[in-house]
Design brief:
mainly alpha; elongated; Spo0E-like
Length: 54
């Protein structure tokens, strides 16, 4: 699975978090889709922290 997804802003972060929770409820916590969403959230959060810290 090789995706490059760029999200900006808290609204997008919340949308991905919601997708992750839905996928976890449907497929289980260790499913690759849930892991993918988790990594995307980590990347988005890190980008937000970097931009806010200058």
């Amino acid at each position: 699975m090789n995706f490059k997804v760029v999200y900006e802003g808290e609204e997008d972060l919340e949308q991905v978090r919601s997708k992750m929770v839905d996928a976890a409820n449907e497929y289980g916590m260790q499913h690759p889709l849930v892991m993918y969403y988790s990594r995307q959230i980590d990347k988005m959060h890190t980008a937000q922290l970097k931009s806010s810290c200058g």
